[in-house]
Amino acid sequence: MSYNVKHNRQFQKFYVNVGGREAFLKYEKLGEGLLDLKMLFVPKNLRGVGIAEKVLMRALAYAENNNLKINTSCSYINQFFDSHPEMKNIVSPKREMIKWVLHYN
């Protein structure tokens, strides 16, 4: 299924409406060149059909097109990057350092 993921800069989110419900990824710009992906939410009745990945991929395309690095505070997105090492070029070195400190302490 195709989803029309939109970007709302004012509310700092990427989102899609499906059947009157909204799935979204909230972010925060952390200075020049860094985007912190804060939280990805998909309503329970819409989970498991690929909406989260579609919303995330839209955010990653935005970051890449604007030469931004990604930091993340979201466990789903952290797992996504862990299982897609080919996308490490977009990840902030700060994210990798934080992940290392949390893992080894």
Strands of the biggest beta sheet: in what spatial order?
A: 1-2-3-4-5
Number of helices: 3
Number of strands: 5
Please identify the oligomeric state. Answer: single chain
Q: Which geometry do the CA atoms define?
A: globular
Number of domains: 1
N- to C-terminal distance:
42 Å
Computed Rg: 14 Å
Question: What is the name of the CATH class?
Answer: Alpha Beta
Largest sheet: 5 strands, mixed
Give the averaged pLDDT, no decimals. 86
Amount of helix: 25-40%
Q: Kindly estimate the percentage of residues that lie in beta strands according to DSSP.
A: 25-35%
Description:
With 105 residues, this protein is of the alpha+beta class. It has a single domain, classed as 3-Layer(aba) Sandwich (Aminopeptidase). The protein is 34% helix and 29% strand. The chain has 3 helices and 5 strands, in the order ββββαβαα. It has helices at residues 51-65, 75-83, 93-104, and strands spanning 6-8, 13-18, 21-29, 34-41, 69-72. Strands 1-2-3-4-5 form a 5-stranded mixed β-sheet. β1 (6-8) and β2 (13-18) form a beta hairpin. It is globular. The N and C termini lie far apart (42 Å). 23% of the residues are buried. Residues 96-105 have low confidence and may be disordered.
